[in-house]
Amino acid sequence: MTLLPTPPVLTPQDSLAPPPHGWTPTSWHDHPAAQQPDYPDPRALRRVTETLALQPPLVLPGEILDLRRELAGVAAGDGFLLQAGDCAERFASCTEDGVRGKLRVILQLAIVLTFGSGLPVVKVGRIAGQFGKPRSSPTETVDGVELPAFRGDIVNGPEFDPASRRPDADRLLRAYHHSSAALNVLRALTLGGFADLGQVHAWNQESVRRSAAGRRYEKAADDISWALRFMSACGVDTGAQPVLHQTRLYTSHEALLPAYEQALTRYDEHRRAWFGTSAHLLWIGDRTRQLDGAHVELLSGVANPLGVKVGPSTTPEDLRALCERLDPHRSPGRLVLITRLGAGRSGDLLPPLLRAVREAGHLPVWACDPMHGNTFVSPAGYKTRRLTDITTEIGEFFGAHAQEGTHPGGLHLELTGDDVTECLGGELDEIVDARLGTRYETACDPRLNAAQSLELAFRSAEILRA
Ligand code: PEP
Ligand code: MN
């Protein structure tokens, strides 16, 4: 991978600069906040956020800084980021099975990417808190009845009736508790036997094994098992290597609701810095990245790594200004710029963005979200995405980085371990429009199923290796 000369890599401790002048955890109140629910009872909101502020953090500063350190490595070209999970998590799926299913497919993809590319893969889930959704319209009308849009379980319920759709501040507290429960399972699974490399075959589910990608995965898993056996035959005590038996999955979500994030923003005396403790990585969505908006203001003051979604309306000047606001100290890996430009457009739109950011001296992780620029409504009426568009955008992403000499640092995917039929395409077991209704279960955007996700990981690994 060729890289242009880059700024020196600082450790996160070196680069924990103070928040911008005038920033406090409440300074976002002086800025307009897009995409906010209209809570019928502001007193209830205050009561809930006061309660939340007394709860323990969900993640700790030390873990957040570990992720920052790993992302600094990715930004410098020494790794790859896999950020993946549901579009909208449901409270009801924060169960052992729900978490295990998502972890399983993320582990599979990560091992395919690592094995195929030889690069370490940093794993970040859209998990344990991805409950809030920005919407293109604040209301939804069905048969002449207009109700508030569903904004995710953290705000209201999806059922189309006035009681469900009314924003309910108590849901913020429920979101906290469901995140906490999901994290508890996640920590147990990643530290216990489930994430052991010796389980690489067990991550492949029966339904996936039948697909072309599933069979290819079995072959890779055989090779990995063989490599482990080879290492022990050579005398390497593989049993004593924690890296082979445990893994780390960091958490992330869109920081859509500043009131929730503020309640979990905590000062760390030891590190003299503020941290958002609802997840390791927080991102700003394409609809809430206004330079003078509340979301940018709040996140500018926390030391977490920050994601920013970069949609097709982002100009190089916009992006440069955002980077200046969120990364004034040019800290490698502070920012994860997640481009979601659309197949057929990203080849033209991406290079000027890469150049603008590089010329301004930032060293972000560049990640490709090939999902959100490629959504459309199928003739059968389902919101969907074509696997071919998704792989095309990934190809354009790698192409633009090769052209500009920057590192194509990661993928940002909406997927599930379940055998759903939400996105079109796939080798052998192709999902066509008429089949979308069979298992269309998403609470928001269409997700790749496990076989489609694996197919995409194999293709990406091939390009990374080339
Ligand atoms: C999302 O990631 O689910 C999302 C809403 O993305 P974006 O902000 O890029 O539209
Ligand atoms: Mn989505």
Automatic annotation (TrEMBL):
| Record's compositionally biased regions (Pro residues) | 1-10
The GO terms this record gives for MF are: 3-deoxy-7-phosphoheptulonate synthase activity
Leader peptide range in chain numbering: none
> Which pathway is recorded for this entry?
Metabolic intermediate biosynthesis; chorismate biosynthesis; chorismate from D-erythrose 4-phosphate and phosphoenolpyruvate: step 1/7
Residue ranges for the region (Disordered) are: 1-41
**Swiss-Prot/TrEMBL catalytic activity:** D-erythrose 4-phosphate + phosphoenolpyruvate + H2O = 7-phospho-2-dehydro-3-deoxy-D-arabino-heptonate + phosphate
| InterPro entries registered for this protein in UniProt | Aldolase_TIM, DAHP_synth_2
Q: What class of enzyme is it?
A: transferase
Tell me which Gene3D superfamilies the record gives. Answer: Aldolase class I
Superkingdom, according to UniProt?
Bacteria
The alphabetical list of record keywords is: Amino-acid biosynthesis, Aromatic amino acid biosynthesis, Transferase
Pfam families registered for this protein in UniProt: DAHP_synth_2
Annotated family: Belongs to the class-II DAHP synthase family.
Q: Which NCBIfam families match?
A: DAHP_synth_II (TIGR01358)
- Name this protein carries in UniProt: Phospho-2-dehydro-3-deoxyheptonate aldolase
Instruction: Name its species.
Output: Streptomyces dubilierae
Question: Which taxonomic lineage is given here?
Answer: Bacteria, Bacillati, Actinomycetota, Actinomycetes, Kitasatosporales
